[in-house]
Write a structure and sequence with these properties.
It is a single chain. The chain folds into 4 domains: about 55 residues, 3-Layer(aba) Sandwich (DNA Methylphosphotriester Repair Domain), CATH 3.40.10; about 100 residues, Arc Repressor Mutant, subunit A (Orthogonal Bundle); about 80 residues, DNA-3-methyladenine glycosylase AlkA, N-terminal domain (TATA-Binding Protein, 2-Layer Sandwich); about 220 residues, Endonuclease III, domain 1, CATH 1.10.340. The chain has a 5-stranded antiparallel sheet, with helices on one face. With about 500 residues, it is an alpha+beta fold. The protein contains 22 helices and 9 strands. β8 and β9 form a beta hairpin. It holds the Pfam family Ada_Zn_binding. It catalyses: Hydrolysis of alkylated DNA, releasing 3-methyladenine, 3-methylguanine, 7-methylguanine and 7-methyladenine.
């Protein structure tokens, strides 16, 4: 390893901060940066327990992908491939999501983002410091290493789940980079392929798992989901592959990880499914930074003190969530969930038998675009909105793939009759996991920010709420979920 391998431009403050973090093994920085050691050719997490190298022999990198691209190999002690995922800016997340969905195909990734291939390559390289092709090659190697060390998949299943199309090429690539055959890197690989995969999903910081489960339990459609006080489960269909998964918290003492178990006959969908589950349970949030930004408000500060592990619940399927959000306009959670259940039973396809009693898949847009929604207890205006939305989504779903700020999407969607700013921001907040989305007109937010016991006419106005929320950017979605939670504390 050449000691000329460059460290990306960092400010003096950043270098000092990173140096303090690695010397103290500060767990808050785990996944935020990686350390390349030029004398050994190894890169580590800042929490690595080995003796810290001299500063002149250290290079800092924002991601494991970049560190590996620069020629460093993952440490066998701290296992950097298992570090928490970094929280990306919105546009960075969209660019990367397109590349992963299309498995490194830059042309299709550019189309996904409605960009030219040249624009996509330029923006990606500026955001991540490597080209899309370089990122994809390193990403699938790290994904393979993660699955080898952190799942029960067979070698063949790991090969295809991590994006390789040839077992021979997979074996060669792993051995060339990591110096060992995949079978020697694997921890618990079964001799034969199985229809069940178990994967650990690490996170960082506080996580109130019971509170997250209670949120989904109140909104569960029992035909597609099964929620208990310890487990979340649901059926899925991804790229014509069906199955179901369960998620529990790791039972290993002090281990910050969820345990995902996937039941399916095609593990090529694993990267997409893992990404969706991580988003659904907000596993990549840095709550320390978020709390510092939104904690100035008294109501929010009380929630942070009482439930510091409250995270932003996402969703598994965007289209499904948009339907449920439209149903939730001016309805209680219970009523909206009942209506969603009726739609699911009326138009969804039956799922394969499973031990949890789930019976249906939620209907996709191909099934709902021709639905009449009659006999389900919906008002005519709500039926008109659903029909209009299904038609719009069919022709314009790419509007969610790449945007700079939710205001751009809002300006477009509010032109549709029955879709207002609350709905758009709720789409973004939970459907897209946009951290800055903010349904300012939500009654719960209004109540939380108004004087207790005041008359409706005396409640805080929307203009005042938006002005107040400026200080919470770019984490206004978290402010919203904490304000909702404050109502239960203050009751």
């Amino acid at each position: 390893m050449s000691n000329k391998t460059p460290t990306p431009d960092l400010t003096i403050h950043q270098k000092k901060s990173f140096q303090r973090a690695r010397m103290s093994r500060d767990a808050r920085f785990d996944g935020k940066f990686f350390i390349g050691v030029v004398t050994t050719g190894i890169f580590c997490r800042p929490i690595c327990r080995v003796k810290p190298p001299k500063e002149e022999n250290v290079r800092y990198y924002a991601t494991a992908v970049i560190a590996q691209q620069q020629g460093f190999r993952p440490c066998k002690r701290c296992l950097p491939e298992l570090a928490p995922e970094p929280r990306l800016a919105l546009t960075e997340k969209q660019l990367l999501n397109a590349l992963l969905i299309h498995q490194g195909n830059v042309n299709n990734s550019a189309k996904h983002c409605q960009l030219s291939e040249r624009q996509y390559r330029r923006r990606f390289s500026l955001s991540f410091g490597v080209t899309p092709n370089q990122y994809w090659q390193q990403h699938r190697l790290l994904s393979a290493l993660k699955l080898l060390r952190n799942s029960n998949l067979s070698i063949t299943d790991v090969c295809f789940a991590s994006g390789f199309n040839s077992v021979r090429r997979f074996n060669e690539a792993i051995k060339d980079l990591y110096g060992k055959a995949p079978s020697l890197l694997a921890e618990h690989v079964p001799k034969e392929a199985t229809n069940q995969a178990q994967i650990k999903l690490p996170y960082q910081g506080e996580f109130d798992w019971p509170l997250m489960l209670s949120f989904f339990a109140l909104r569960q459609i029992k035909e597609i989901e099964h929620v208990t006080d310890q487990q979340y489960a649901r059926v899925f269909t991804l790229d014509s592959t069906s199955g179901y998964f369960t998620v529990i918290h790791s039972e290993v003492p002090n281990e910050q990880a969820l345990l995902l178990t996937v039941h399916t006959d095609n593990f090529q969908i694993l990267p997409t499914l893992i990404s969706r589950v991580r988003k659904m349970f907000d596993l990549d949030a840095n709550l320390d930074i978020i709390h510092q930004t939104i904690g100035g408000n008294e109501n929010i500060r009380k929630v942070i003190e009482r439930t510091p592990g409250l995270r932003l619940p996402g969703c598994f399927d965007l289209f499904e969530f948009t339907i449920r959000a439209i149903l939730g306009q001016q309805f209680s959670v219970k009523a909206a969930t009942t209506l969603a259940k009726r739609i699911c039973v009326a138009y969804g396809l039956p799922c394969n038998a499973n031990p949890l009693g789930m019976s249906h898949h939620f209907p996709d847009n191909n099934r709902l675009i021709t639905a009449n929604f009659d006999g389900l207890g919906l008002t005519q205006s709500r039926i008109s909105t659903l029909k209009l939305w299904c038609q719009y989504y069919e022709n314009n779903h790419q509007i969610f793939n790449y945007y700079n700020h939710i205001d751009e999407v809002q300006q477009e969607l509010v032109k549709l009759k029955g879709i207002g700013p609350w709905t758009v921001n709720y789409f973004a907040m939970r459907g897209l996991s946009d951290p800055d989305a903010f349904p300012s007109a939500d009654l719960g937010i209004i109540k939380a920010l108004s004087e207790k016991g005041c008359a409706p006419k005396e409640r805080i106005k929307n203009k005042e709420i938006l002005a107040l929320a400026q200080q919470w950017r770019p984490w206004r979605a978290y402010a919203a979920i904490y304000l909702w939670q404050s109502l239960s504390i203050n009751e």
